[in-house]
Amino acid sequence: MSSSSSEIRSRRGKGAPALETRFDRRLGEILAHATDVFCDKGYEGASMRDLSRASGMSLAGLYHYFGSKERLLYLIQKHTFSTIVEELKKRLADVADPEERIRIFVQNHLEYFVTNQSGLKVLAHEDEALKNGFNSEVAAIKREYYRICLKLMEDLKRERKQDFNSRTAVMSLFGMINWIYTWYNPRQDGTAKDLAKQMSAIILSGVGCSSSARIGHTRRPSSKALSSRAVRRRSRERARDLQSAPGTTHRAKRIL
Fold first, then answer.
1. What one-character-per-residue DSSP string does 57-126 give?
2. Which of 97, 159, 196, 228 is the right S-S partner for 107, CB 3.0 to 4.6 Å?
């Protein structure tokens, strides 16, 4: 908008709460429509006219209040990350157990994005689209979110007296939870709570296994392992044969 939402609210005077509620509701609607447009067309492919049609706001009004589509993308990202961080802090406030705190982190993230998958796609694909100073505030919120998760991993490591790379664990976790929009199906994968339970178990079990790993240390294969090489080789050959068989299709999956 041409001025921030806080500036607009400060001018309302008496009766501000009701007006503020209507303002916030309308702003949320506009951002939701803009998110859908960016999701369908991509940030570069979307125009202000597309955003005007989707939101129901006149093109002149859209320019008056927002100025550019970049500001809309900025508001989408700021609103999304601020909402997630604020809700996460509330949920963590009264919980001390390190494992439970990580479960809360995962569930909080998934509960938001399972119902906002288009938003997650926009955040993932348009991460570097913000320029002209818009990205600095959003980047600060992202860093805070990362630091919260990193501290949760450090607390878990101390509690368990384990030795694993906390940064690797955090980035692996983000790799899981940030790409659900490419495959999540509620009929197959359950609710956000179901998904969070499974993903939390994977990450909590995984960091436990990683603590015993020794990078750079090579063990000599046992005779049993050596004898199974031929089996593995035949398995790989069989897999290649199946892939090249008529009727077999390949679908490339984008990964982080």
1. --HHHHHHHH-SHHHHHHHHHHHHHHHHHHHHHHHHTT---HHHHHHHHHHHHHHHHHS-HHHHHHHHHS
2. 196
User: Measured between alpha carbons, how far is 180 from 245 in angstroms, rounded to an integer?
Assistant: 30
Q: Which residues lie closer than 8 Å to 76 by C-beta, 6 or more apart?
A: 31, 34, 35, 38, 119, 122, 123
Q: Provide DSSP, 214-226.
A: -TT--PPPPHHHH
Distance CA 79, CA 13 (A): 24
CA distance 41 to 191: 28
Measure the CA–CA gap between 61 and 52, rounded to whole angstroms. 9
d(CA 156, CA 99): 6
CB contact at 8 A, 172 and 118: no
Number of residues assigned to the chain = 256
Angle between helices 98-114 and 192-210 (to 10 degrees): 140
Please state the pTM of the whole predicted model: 0.72
Q: What is the DSSP letter of 92?
A: H
Give the whole-angstrom CA distance, residue 134 versus residue 43: 15
**pLDDT tens digits for range 119-165:** 888 888 887 888 877 888 888 999 999 999 999 999 999 999 998 99
Q: What is the CB neighbour count within 10 angstroms for residue 149?
A: 23
Amino acid identity of 175? G
Q: Which two three-digit tokens encode residue 106?
A: 């995962």
Provide the residue type at 115 as one letter: T
Q: How far apart are CA 84 and CA 174, in angstroms?
A: 14
Amino acid at 119: G
**Model confidence at 21: pLDDT above 80:** no
- Measured between alpha carbons, how far is 76 from 72 in angstroms, rounded to an integer? 6
